[in-house]
């Protein structure tokens, strides 16, 4: 017999930061895990990333005891959606994505039912993401999945925004963290308060990319005392990102027809698909599947090329050419060379099941779209979000979506200009910069000194 995973209740007191906090017992969410490939179900051993005993690559999925989502008070931040988050505790400082019906951008495009889900800094809308990125949804979920008995340092590779989010969350909640970020992306590591010493940063030298940072993080995880965050394999990361869809559907009252988001790894789109499936099982919000309209920044387009070739495996991509393309794109956070696309339960399966397309935007188009969003919606957005806006505009012009379609636009980061004007900034500097493809012994030598 299978039992739902749970732990003892934890009582945490969150500070009063511009909103009312309800102090009460929080019971860890009850769930089991399931292999997408085989359907086999098993208990979470605390940090299970793979299906035990299975050899073929597959994601595992959280199966929650509560089949219907009960949304808590806004004072819980992202944990208002705790019914569908694999968390053992509440961490301080979170904010949930905010969904509203667009007027300005909708009118500009010509759409009648455009809803924007915003994850960033926009106090007037109730969005208070201190890192201005939806990557906070991942960090608050992943770190709240961690058991206090784990006693290991979490390792996260990032092209920028994910690192900023995990650094903020781990610093605020005193969680040991090692970040691996390409040197060319360090300007993304800005904060409104100094980061505590429990967070360490190492980098790969200028000219490297996100793939090189991932390689460095993999080396670190071979060293005793360090544990991989897991990326798309971590159910907490995907279900944290899925709160964007939880926000949209509960605000709108039904599942949208189309979902627009720019992707690097595609994990956010996988999460959207999984949330969609849970809402169908919930039964109160419709039975349709959102078409996944994901987008990339030309010329870095490996997901686009694989999808258009109807290929489950990613197509060959020369290392030097990939690095060159990463240098050329404005939305550098969309530069994942080995995304969770072919794996069972990955982006290929999500799009085959839900339908949709992979769209493209050039640097020129995304910059124009960012300007249009700021003019029509009165807030700035990140380059990746602007890619999604640009492709939404083009999709309507070319007849890919209907005028009366219910569209969810996932704005994955914004409000940074306003936030930086209102706050003094502090930058996190790397403790060590490695050459590309360093030796394990060199990484161990550096980390032994840092920790």
Strand order in the sheet with the most strands: 4-5-16-13-14-15
Q: What best-fitting shape do the alpha-carbon axes yield?
A: globular
Radius of gyration: 20 Å
Enumerate the spans where pLDDT stays under 50 for 5 or more consecutive residues: 1-24
- Overall helicity: 25-40%
End-to-end separation in angstroms reads: 42 Å
Percentage beta strand: 15-25%
CATH topology of one domain: Rossmann fold
> How many individual β-strands?
18
The level-1 CATH class of one domain: Alpha Beta
Descriptive notes:
This protein has 451 residues and is α/β, with parallel strands linked by helices. It contains 14 helices and 18 strands. A 6-stranded mixed β-sheet has the order 4-5-16-13-14-15, with helices on both faces. It is globular and about 60 Å long.
Summarize the entry for a quick read.
This protein is of the alpha/beta class. 32% of the residues lie in helices and 17% in strands. The protein has a domain at 98-132 and 236-419: 3-Layer(aba) Sandwich (Rossmann fold).
């Amino acid at each position: 017999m299978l039992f739902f995973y749970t732990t003892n209740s934890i009582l945490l007191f969150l500070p009063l930061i511009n909103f009312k906090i309800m102090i009460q017992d929080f019971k860890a969410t009850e769930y089991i895990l399931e292999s997408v490939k085989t359907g086999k179900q098993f208990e979470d051993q605390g940090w299970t990333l793979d299906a035990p005993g299975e050899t073929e690559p597959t994601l595992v999925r959280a199966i929650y005891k509560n089949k219907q989502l009960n949304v808590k008070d806004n004072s819980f931040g992202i944990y208002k959606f705790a019914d569908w988050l694999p968390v053992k505790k509440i961490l301080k400082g979170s904010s949930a994505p905010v969904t509203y019906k667009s007027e300005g951008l909708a009118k500009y495009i010509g759409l009648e039912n455009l809803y924007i889900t915003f994850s960033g800094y926009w106090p007037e809308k109730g969005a208070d993401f201190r890192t201005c990125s939806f990557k906070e949804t991942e960090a608050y979920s992943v770190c709240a999945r961690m058991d206090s008995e784990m006693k290991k340092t979490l390792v996260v590779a990032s092209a920028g925004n994910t690192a900023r989010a995990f650094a903020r969350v781990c610093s605020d909640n005193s969680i040991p963290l090692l970040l691996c970020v390409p040197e060319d992306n360090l300007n993304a590591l800005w904060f409104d308060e100094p980061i505590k010493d429990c967070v360490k940063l190492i980098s790969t030298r200028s000219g490297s990319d996100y793939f090189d940072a991932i390689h460095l993080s993999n080396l670190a995880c071979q060293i005793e005392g360090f544990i991989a965050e897991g990326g798309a394999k971590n159910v907490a990361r995907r279900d944290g990102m899925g709160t964007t869809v939880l926000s949209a559907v509960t605000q709108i009252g039904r599942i949208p027809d189309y979902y627009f988001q720019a992707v690097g790894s595609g994990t956010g789109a996988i999460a959207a698909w999984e949330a969609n499936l849970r809402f169908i099982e919930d039964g109160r919000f419709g039975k349709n599947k959102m078409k996944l309209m994901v987008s990339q920044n030309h010329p870095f387009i490996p997901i686009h090329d694989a999808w258009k070739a109807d290929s489950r495996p990613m197509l060959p991509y020369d290392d030097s050419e990939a690095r060159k393309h990463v240098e050329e794109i404005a939305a550098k956070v969309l530069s994942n060379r080995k995304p969770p696309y072919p794996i069972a339960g990955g982006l290929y399966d999500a799009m085959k099941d839900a339908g949709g397309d992979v769209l493209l935007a050039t640097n020129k188009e995304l910059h124009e779209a960012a300007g249009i969003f700021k003019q029509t919606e009165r807030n700035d957005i990140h380059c990746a979000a602007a890619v999604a806006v640009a492709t939404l505009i083009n999709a309507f012009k070319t007849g890919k979506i209907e005028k009366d379609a219910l569209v969810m636009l996932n704005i994955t980061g914004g409000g940074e200009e306003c936030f930086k004007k209102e706050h003094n900034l502090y930058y996190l500097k790397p403790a060590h910069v490695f050459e590309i493809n360093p030796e394990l012994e060199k990484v161990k030598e550096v980390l032994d000194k840092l920790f």
